[in-house]
Write a structure and sequence with these properties.
This protein is mainly α and 175 residues long. Helix content is 68%, strand content 0%.
Length: 175
């Protein structure tokens, strides 16, 4: 009587999925890089949306290129931070260099996009300034200001910023 000394492997459906460490150890690190890309895209989207938390009212939200530049400026370093802190998940040196380079290019591009106002013309300028002015209104309305001179300054800021928002909204409506 012969005995097979090798136990049968469990059925495919009964096997658990490999852990990130096992994927890395067995050459499956590609999934980690896909997740890194997804994380970067989701971080960009979250930051883009969350930057509107400062507007005084929903009507003052105008999607604009400056917000995209700022979101990219904040999301790009997250790729490098992830690669540095979770290096065991990202063993492919070539892909790491590419990820660092792409995030660096995104960071520098966003930095110069904002500083040089690249591709910001009349309408983009107005769409950028309305949320900016609205943020000043929110801060003046919600800050716990006790100094009489600063309270007067805020009353002036609210009046002037709202007047400018109204003017910018009218200009946008005519375009």
């Amino acid at each position: 009587m012969t005995h097979d000394t090798h136990a049968e492997a469990p059925a495919k459906s009964a096997q658990r999925p490999p852990s990130p460490r096992e994927e890395t150890e067995h050459g499956g690190h590609g999934h980690a890089y896909v997740r890194l890309l997804i994380m970067a895209v989701l971080s960009f989207a979250a930051m883009y949306v969350l930057m509107y938390a400062m507007v005084d009212r929903f009507a003052h939200i105008h999607p604009n290129l400056n917000q995209a530049y700022m979101a990219a400026l904040m999301a790009a370093p997250m790729v490098g931070i992830e690669l540095a802190l979770m290096s065991a998940m990202y063993p492919d040196r070539r892909l790491n260099v590419a990820a660092w380079a792409l995030s660096g290019i995104a960071f520098v591009g966003a930095w110069f996009g904002i500083r040089e106002q690249a591709a910001i013309g009349n309408e983009e300028f107005l769409r950028s300034m309305i949320p900016h002015h609205s943020s000043a209104i929110l801060m003046c309305r919600e800050a716990q200001i006790t100094d009489a001179e600063i309270r007067q300054l805020c009353r002036n800021i609210v009046a002037s910023q709202q007047a400018e928002i109204d003017q910018m909204e009218a200009l946008l409506a005519r375009r």
